[in-house]
Amino acid sequence: MSAMYKAEVPAYGTLMELVAEANAQVLANDPRLKGSLEDTDSLDRISEERHGAIRLGTSEELSMMRRVFAVMGMHPVGYYDLSTAGVPVHATAFRPLDAEALSRNPFRVFTSLLRLDLIGDAALRAEAERVLAARRIFSEGAVQLTEKAESQSGLDRHDADRFVGEILETFRWHDQACVSADLYRRLHRQHRLIADVVSFKGPHINHLTPRTLDIDAVQERMPARGIEPKAVVEGPPTRQCPILLRQTSFKALDEQVSFKSDEGTWTTGSHTARFGEIEQRGIALTPKGRALYDRLLDETRKIATPAADGSNVAEYRAALARQFRSFPDTWADIRASGLGYFTYSLTALGRQAHGACAEDLDLLLAQGFVRFDPIVYEDFLPVSAAGIFQSNLGDEAVEAFAASPNQQRFESALGASVLDEFAYYAAIEQRSIENCLRGLKAVGIE
Ligand code: OOG
Ligand code: NI
């Protein structure tokens, strides 16, 4: 998919080069970071994609997509409602779940489902529904191999290769629209995103996102390489202890497409959908930490809401930095205030310790028997996601829909429930604590 996307969107290839350069520079300047990444991540894959995104039109497409991702060990985590931000979709992210699976495949797909129920114009809604109902986004082969994987719990090497080839077709770009220029225009006038989802044969991957070790550097260097970044980096400000997720993108490109007229002739037009993004991840926050994050971000945006034209970037950045001074910025403080999730493990000392009280974690930490490390946030942020959507849907003002999250409806379309991300991180933390305590008991500490 990466190779396909680079070939289709050359600016994305340039972004990948920029990321690789910036990452190499960070590693050259910081041998300690390099050492720790060597221990925990595969360094040779450091600059590779960590996520991508697609937008689906119907519940049938979403539930089939869930089955397809399940074949690849990717499962729906989290529910994101973007209606309040003026984007008529709700979403989840498909991703591997446990640490081992994530280290083999750290790739996620942010998957949105269009909400035609938020569209006021009933006639247009019916027309869009009709177009969507007629399309098939999966090849016969993809469906057959998915069924085969389900019935025999997996695929052999040969079938797995065929499966990847078939599924890749679903994510491919089609420059021939399946609607007329007139219908495209009407959908577009209703909302650009509706035109993007309804007008084409399939849910083209709309961006891929490599991991960067220095998002500020890449953001700054984009213009010199001829790519136009969105106005601001989404998420928390630059910090000593990174939290959650920071992301930015280059603006979607105008691409040539063609529309079919009733007489069967093709007319040329253009469509803006595809872009490139970069991300940098930090610690997963507890509900308390997340509430603090949401409050500080909200206060920042009351002072300065980032304007699409970049006119108040300096003001927004200053407000963000100022507000986030109230978010503790050492791992010890973040832990002590119960704001973040950590894994705990026995130190060399702990592995041979005698005479400690094995129930008091704080004491064990103070005695140097146990250490703690931040758990990386593997999910997404609705306000940031809305910012990424917006900057790639054009710069005109957006109407906000009334808040109408509907997780139940999303899950019924999906045909499964989504995993609660907080429960997921809490369980990893809890398991690590239990392992530590068991380890201490094993060396005779009660
Ligand atoms: C998805 C935007 C959300 C992210 O990184 O938060 C996203 C889209 O534009 O379809 O990918
Ligand atoms: Ni993204």
Account of the protein in words:
The chain is of the alpha+beta class and 446 residues long. It has a domain at 2-232 and 380-413: Roll (2,3-Dihydroxybiphenyl 1,2-Dioxygenase, domain 1). The protein is built from 19 helices and eleven strands. The protein has helices spanning 2-8, 10-29, 31-40, 59-71, 99-104, 122-134, 140-151, 157-171, 181-190, 192-198, 215-221, 287-303, 313-323, 331-336, 348-351, 361-366, 382-391, 407-414, 421-442; strands spanning 49-56, 75-81, 89-95, 108-114, 207-210, 245-250, 254-260, 266-272, 276-281, 342-346, 370-374. Helix 4 crosses helix 7. The protein is globular. The model has no long low-confidence stretch (mean pLDDT 92). The structure holds 2-oxoadipic acid (OOG) and nickel (II) ion. The site of nickel (II) ion (NI) has 7 residues, from strand 1 and strand 5.
What is the topological layout?
Elements: H1 2-8, H2 10-29, H3 31-40, E1 49-56, H4 59-71, E2 75-81, E3 89-95, H5 99-104, E4 108-114, H6 122-134, H7 140-151, H8 157-171, H9 181-190, H10 192-198, E5 207-210, H11 215-221, E6 245-250, E7 254-260, E8 266-272, E9 276-281, H12 287-303, H13 313-323, H14 331-336, E10 342-346, H15 348-351, H16 361-366, E11 370-374, H17 382-391, H18 407-414, H19 421-442
Parallel strand pairs: 1-4
Antiparallel strand pairs: 1-5, 2-3, 3-4, 6-9, 7-8, 10-11
The structure holds 2-oxoadipic acid (OOG) and nickel (II) ion.
